[in-house]
Every structure is written in C-alpha cells, then in structure tokens.
Write a structure and sequence with these properties.
single chain, 584 residues, alpha+beta, Beta-Lactamase, Helix Hairpins, 4 domains, five-stranded antiparallel beta sheet, 16 helices, 54% helix
C-alpha cells in the first residue's frame, strides 16, 4: 500500500502540511512560554531589588539576622513568592517556608553562585523541599559596596505550566484539525486521480499469474485505454514465448542436472551465472555460494581462471588438463566463448579424470614393477642355464651348486606369483575373512615363536611386551598372525646382530594398537610414506631380497579388518610398525 501512487502523491502533501502546522504550533508555544518566563523574571527582579535594598538598610542600622525573618515573611506573603536570605558563605539565614536550621548550605546552588559573582542568577529546577518545579532568581545584597548575602526568590511553576499546557493543547487541537482535513483532501484527490490506473493494475496482475485472457479497460479513449490495448498485445506474445521458454528450460535443466561433467557459465566480468549439481560437487559448493560470485572464489584454482581468461581474450575454445590442490584431482577443463548466444559469456566444462588417471598410473606402475621383479630371477636363470650348457654339467659339484641357485630363483618366482594372487584376491574382496573374538596375546605369541629361531640365528633378542588383561579383538587369527610374521621378518632382516625386537599391544578406546619395534637401520623419510605400495622397496631393503608385496598385503589385510597400519622410523635408530584392530 505504501508503494502505491496514491501514497506517493498524497504523502508529500501530507508531510508538508504536518511540517507547516507543527512548525507554527511549536513557534507559538515557545514564544508564549518565553513571554511567561520573561514576565515572571521581571516581576521577581523588581520585588527582589526592593527587598535587597530594604535588607541592606536594616543591616546597616544594626538589625540582626533573626530580625530579618518577619520582613522576609511579609514580602513573601505580599508577593506570593518563596523568599530565602543566604549569607555570602552559603548559610541560610531566613526562609519564608522552611526552618533555616534544617536547610543545607546553599553555596553550591547555581543561582546563588551566579548572584555572588555577578548581578543576578536564575535557574529552573525541582525543589527537594517542596517537591515541585520552581523558578529561582537570586540577587546580591550589597552593603557599603560589599556583597553580604543573597536574596533568592522562588515562584512555583505549576500554575504557569498548567496554562502553557492548556495553550499547547488548544494549538495542537487546531493544528490536528487542519492536518486531518488536509490529509483527507489530499487522499481524496489522489484516489480520484488514480482510480482508473488501479483498475488497470488489478487486471494486469492476472498476467503475472499466467492468464493472458484478461478483460482490460481498452475501450477508453484516454492514455489508460492506449496502455490497456498495448498490454493486451504484449500479453498474447508473452504467453506464446513463455510456453516455449518453459519447455526449453525444462530440457536444459534435465540435461544439466543429470550431467556428470561440471558446467559453469561465466560472464565477461568473471561472475558465475550458472552452475549445475556436478559443479557444486566438484568444487564443494552450494548453488547459493556459487551464483553471483567470482570464478576464482568458486573454483579456487588459478589455472582454471587463466583458462577462462585465455578463452575470453582469444575468443576461441581452450582445453587444458590440470591437477587441483589440495584434493589432487585431475580435471580436464574446456572453455568455450558463447558469443552467438550470450555475448561476453564463457561456457566452462570440467571433466574429472582422476579415476582414469589413477587407474592408468596403477596399470603403468604395476607393469613396470612386475617387469622389474621378473627380470632379475629370469636373468639369473638364463645365466645359470648358459653356464651349465657351456660345460658346467661336466663338473658335478658346480652343476649341483648352479641347480640349487636355479631352484632358489624358481622358489622366488613361485612366491611372487602366490603373493600377487593373494594381493589380487584381497583387493577384490574375494578372500573370506573368518573374523572371530581372538586374544591378542595368543596371536603375538604364535608369531614370535614362529620367528624366534630365525631371530636367534641372527643374534637378536625378540620378546613380547603386553598386558594379559588386553581385551579380545575381532580378527581372522591366521591372517593377522601372517601380518605379524611379515613385520617380524622385516625387522629381523634389517636389524644388525645384538639388536632387539619388541612386539607389544595396548588398548586405545574401542581398538587395540599392535606394534613391532626394532633397533635396525631404519627407513629414510622419503621412503617411509611409500613402503606400503606394491613392489616398493627402500634402498636398504633391495639388498635383502623379497618381492616388495608383503607390506602391501599387510595393509590390505588390516584395512579389511576396519583397522589402519602405519610406520615410524629414524635412519640408524630403528623402526616401529603399528596397526589397529577393533575390540570385540
């Protein structure tokens, strides 16, 4: 209602009237109040000067302060004014209303201070004694040119304020009447002027609701009739266009909603004007957080912004494959200018190639690692075979030694194939884990006993350090013992004679943390983060043989038990491998 033309026309006039009437009322009220105050001041000053002269003369003739009380009371009764005589030190000597002995020192009163230092002092304030507002006028009492005291006159403002209130009420009443009549007149004029437009607006409102068949007042000959006929033509055109638009919009929304590729449309200023659900998932944003914001705020990757700028500046399609951070996703971005349909805008399409890239990396690494691991034993077998063919068969001791080495290489190949099959089965979830409630001490004890002889041969001390009160865990005992044996085998392999290996476990909330600690050669920091990868071997471990699959199998086994595995190490100080299992 406030936005209607009626109020836009009427409100300025109403405001002007209110301002005029209010200003006149305020002026007359203040003028009258000022007149009352000035008249009161002059009256009190005349009476006060007469009394001040009288008191000064009486004091010169030797009158005491006690003799002044009747005089002050007489003047107070005559002028209907409260009169107080105050010495120059602020002590009240006489008062026409209260007992001077009960009154406080008046030296701090503003009007008294002004009278002692000048010709007079005036103040309006609330009286603590009489509980009413008073007008105070203080005049100095001079004797032989010296101020011997102050005569203060006080007049109750209740009557004056009452008269002023009545006057203000009459002025405001007249002003309100004039204002009400003016407002009514302005409203009626505005209503009469805008009534035809209101009827037109009511009819046109139906256009917003999608109904083009509205009965507009097009028969009028004035401007409103011309406007109505124009609206009818526009309504028919809009109806057809809206139907087509809704159909096309539905198709576009369906395509964008079900696309797996992220789609953004960016205007010439770099503001995102469109984003599909795939873009929200890729860039971890909601629709409210993306629309209207700059491209750099949405994608948070400067490479994508540069791709958009290159396409905008060159007005050609640009394609680039980028790695995002910190997610390390591989994304192919395609920027296409939309000069024909949306001048200045650019279509950005992002394809998440992370899974394909990782699969390709895994495939490439797997082929490379398998080729490397097979090449060594096959080359050894080839060399041994050629040696035997070149005459070593004629030397039975040497032939047996070569055949034994060939058998060892074949065993290594067999172990590698077996571990590859086990790892493949575990990764694909085809290995059934028989998880039962198992005592951690039993699994650690069995693993240590299996490796104790090998540790003793290497001159190592191996022991178990754990509490018998540990809770049982949910685990496939044979698989977890195999993990412990693998960790112990590595610890024995890389710990010099005289070293120590400790297998321990402790409870941490709803899980048990197992650890295998050794005092061996340790692992370099750059190798520590990769030791659980397939075929990965640190430099030290390559000299000790092995397939490089044991820790990878261990990781997949522990993760299949809803646990985690990690390692801590310092070169030259030993290593500690940890893994967790859930409490039964």
């Amino acid at each position: 209602m406030r936005r209607s033309l009626v109020w836009r026309i009427a409100v300025p006039f109403i405001g002007l009237i209110l301002l005029s009437v209010g200003g006149v009322s305020l002026y007359f009220t203040n003028y009258t109040q000022q007149g009352y105050t000035e008249n009161l001041h002059d009256s009190l000053k005349t009476s006060g000067n007469l009394l001040a002269v009288d008191i000064a003369n009486r004091i010169l003739r030797g009158a005491s302060y006690d003799d002044l009380a009747p005089v002050i009371q007489s003047y107070a009764d005559l002028t209907q004014t409260r009169i107080t005589f105050i010495r120059s030190d602020g002590v009240v000597v006489a008062d026409s209303v209260a007992d001077p002995k009960t009154m406080q020192n008046h030296l701090d009163r503003p009007e008294v201070k002004a009278a002692l230092s000048g010709p007079e002092g005036a103040e309006i304030r609330f009286s603590d004694t009489l509980k009413r507002r008073f007008y105070y006028l203080a005049l100095p009492v001079l004797s032989t040119g010296q101020t011997i005291g102050v005569i203060r006159l006080a007049r109750d403002l209740t009557i004056i304020e009452g008269e002023l209130r009545n006057l203000r009420a009459r002025i405001l009443g007249v002003g309100a009447t004039i204002t009400l009549l003016s407002v009514l007149l302005a409203y009626l004029v505005a209503q009469g002027t805008l009534r035809p437009l209101r009827k037109l607006a009511s009819k046109v409102q139906h256009l917003k609701e999608g109904d083009p068949n509205v009965d507009l007042p097009s028969g009028r000959k004035d401007e409103i009739g011309v406007l109505s006929r124009s609206f009818e033509q526009v309504a028919r055109q809009l109806s057809t266009q809206m139907a087509d638009f809704q159909e096309e919009r539905g198709k576009l929304e369906a395509v964008l909603r079900h696309m797996t590729d992220a789609v953004l449309i960016v205007d010439k200023d770099g503001k995102v004007t469109l984003a599909n659900p795939a873009a929200e998932r890729l860039f971890h944003l909601t629709l409210d957080q993306s629309l209207g914001r700059s491209l750099v705020e949405v994608v948070r990757q400067h490479q994508f912004v540069e791709l958009w700028r290159a396409s905008r500046d060159s007005r050609k399609q640009q394609i680039s494959t980028l790695e995002t951070s910190p997610e390390r996703n591989f994304v192919q971005g395609t920027a296409t200018p939309l000069e024909s349909s949306l001048p200045g805008s650019t279509l950005l399409v992002f394809q998440n190639l992370t899974r394909i890239h990782r699969l390709e990396t895994v495939r490439r690494d797997f082929v490379s690692n398998v080729s490397h691991e097979l090449r060594t034993p096959l080359a050894s077998l080839k060399a041994l075979t050629e040696t035997l063919q070149e005459g070593a068969l004629e030397d039975p001791p040497a032939a047996r030694r070569f055949l034994k080495r060939m058998e060892d290489e074949i065993d290594n190949l067999t172990q590698m194939v077996r571990e590859l099959l086990d790892l493949s089965r575990i990764e694909s979830g085809r290995v059934p884990f028989d998880r039962l409630s198992v005592n951690p001490m039993m699994m650690m004890g069995n693993a240590v006993e299996r490796m104790r002889l090998q540790a003793e041969r290497g001159g190592l001390n191996i022991q178990v350090d754990a509490s018998q009160s540990l809770p049982e865990v949910m685990a496939d005992a044979d698989r977890i013992e195999a993990v412990l044996v693998n960790l112990l085998h590595n610890a024995i392999k890389f710990t010099p004679p005289g070293g120590q290996i400790v297998v321990s476990a402790r409870q941490d909330g709803d899980k048990v943390v197992f650890s295998v600690r050794d005092t061996g050669i340790g692992i370099k920091p750059e190798d520590l983060s990769r030791i659980f990868e397939r075929f990965y071997k640190a430099d030290q471990s390559r000299s000790g043989g092995g397939t490089g699959l044991g820790l990878s199998i261990a990781r997949h086994t522990i993760e299949a038990h809803q646990g985690s595995i990690w390692a801590e190490s310092h070169p030259g100080q030993g290593s500690t491998f940890y893994f967790t299992l859930p409490v039964a």
